[in-house]
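Team,

Forwarding the record for the chain on the shared tracking sheet. I've put the sequence and predicted structure together so nobody has to dig through attachments.
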Amino acid sequence: MANYRLISLALTVRVYRSTDQTTRCCFILRNEVVSDSGKGRDLLSRGVREAERK
């Protein structure tokens, strides 16, 4: 369940990366997604970095 939520939120960042909501999505990702798996954290940080670059 946590992995599904992580993926859906990462996709949300991609959808909104070119809008004013990018910062809000990154904030949500950083504060709501908690994953015990290193892979999940890697996906999260990569998604946030991609959003911040846009």
